[in-house]
């Protein structure tokens, strides 16, 4: 809701990913570029959703011809 939260505010609802250091390597990415983050800062998003990786695949075709998605 746009309010800044502390680790104490979110730890009960966000375990096991509460702080940035709980992520894979504490690094977040913006448009594919690594961005340093405070390892003791609140992970956003927090919780297990922060460790989720999408593995969906899509196929685009037009008139039966597949179109490459890059």
Poorly predicted sequence stretches spanning 5 or more consecutive residues = none
Strand content: 15-25%
Query: What form results from the Cα inertia axes?
Result: elongated
What series of H and E elements makes up the topology? HEEEE
Roughly how many Å apart are the termini? Answer: 35 Å
Mean pLDDT: 79
Using only C-alpha atoms, the radius of gyration works out to 17 Å
Strand arrangement within the widest β-sheet reads: 1-2
Main β sheet profile: 2 strands, antiparallel
Q: Kindly state the percentage of residues in helix.
A: 10-25%
Q: Give a count of the beta strands, DSSP E runs of length 2 or more.
A: 4
How many domain regions?
A: 1
Number of helices: 1
Structural class: alpha+beta
Notes on the structure:
The chain is an alpha+beta fold and 70 residues long. The chain has one domain (7-67). The chain has one helix and four strands; from the N terminus they run H-E-E-E-E. It has a two-stranded antiparallel ribbon. A two-stranded antiparallel ribbon has the order 3-4. The two termini are 35 Å apart. 10% of the residues are buried.
List the helices and strands and how they pair.
Elements: H1 7-14, E1 28-30, E2 33-35, E3 60-62, E4 65-67
Antiparallel strand pairs: 1-2, 3-4
Please supply descriptive tags for the structure shown above.
elongated, two-stranded antiparallel sheet, two-stranded antiparallel ribbon, 70 residues, 17% strand, alpha+beta
Give a nutshell description of this structure:
The protein is an alpha+beta fold.
């Amino acid at each position: 809701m746009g309010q800044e939260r502390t680790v104490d505010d979110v730890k009960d609802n966000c375990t096991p990913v509460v702080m940035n250091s709980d992520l894979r390597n504490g690094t977040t990415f913006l448009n594919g570029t690594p961005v340093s983050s405070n390892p003791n800062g609140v992970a956003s998003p927090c919780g297990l959703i922060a460790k989720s990786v999408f593995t969906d695949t899509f196929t685009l075709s037009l008139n039966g011809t597949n179109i490459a998605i890059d």
